[in-house]
Every structure is written in C-alpha cells, then in structure tokens.
Write a structure and sequence with these properties.
Layout lengths: L7 H36 L8 H5 L1 E7 L2 E7 L5 H6 L8 H20 L2
Antiparallel strand pairs: 1-2
Length: about 110
C-alpha cells in the first residue's frame, strides 16, 4: 500500500503568505521610520541657523536579507556632534528611538500575531 500527496499547492501558498507578510512588515517599518523622522524634526532641541540639520533628518526602513531595520538618521557631517557633544543637550535621534521603541515593537508583535 502506498500513499502519495501533492503538496505543490501548499508550498505555493506558503511562499505567497511569506511575500505578503514581508510586504506588510516593510509597510509597517516604513511608517514607523517616518514617524520617528517627523518626531525628531519637530522636537529637535537646537535653534536652527540654516535648518539644514533638521531637514537632513531621515527615517525609514531597509532590508538586509530577511532582517528589516527601522532607522532615523541625521545626514549632515556634524550630526554626530549634535547627538554626542555638549552632554547630549542637542541630541534628538537616540531620544526619539528610546521614546518610540516600545510602541514600535508592540505594533510589530501585533502585526505578526505574537
């Protein structure tokens, strides 16, 4: 007695589900990154002289293999000085991440159903 089963349809369904989940994670991650960007731009503690530092703040996401990274970054050559000098008086990027990380993780858990 032999038993045969064609699992081609099941495998195709799993591949489609994986693509849909990756798209949903990417959309959520990009939205979260843009939220970080907006908060950082609005709440930067320095007084603008040229507004270039504030305008250079960028948030989003990027994929590295199957790993999705959410980021917020300052893109001026002096951005590290704003973050790390003067006892952090002008820091906004790390405080933004610290402020929103729990909310973002909870949202991702809800998205993934965990």
């Amino acid at each position: 007695m032999s038993f045969r089963m064609d699992i081609t349809g099941a495998l195709k369904g799993l591949a489609e589900a994986e693509l849909k989940m990756k798209a949903a994670v990417g959309l959520y991650a990009n939205t979260a990154g843009k939220k970080l960007e907006g908060y950082a731009k609005q709440n930067a503690p320095w007084t603008d002289h040229t507004a270039q530092a504030r305008q250079s703040i960028q948030g989003g996401h990027e994929w590295q293999g199957n790993k999705c990274n959410i980021f917020v970054a300052g893109n001026k050559e002096y951005s590290p000085f704003l973050e790390f000098c003067n006892e952090g008086k002008y820091a906004i990027l790390y405080p933004t991440v610290r402020n929103y990380s729990a909310e973002i993780i909870l949202g991702m858990q809800n998205l993934l159903g965990k």
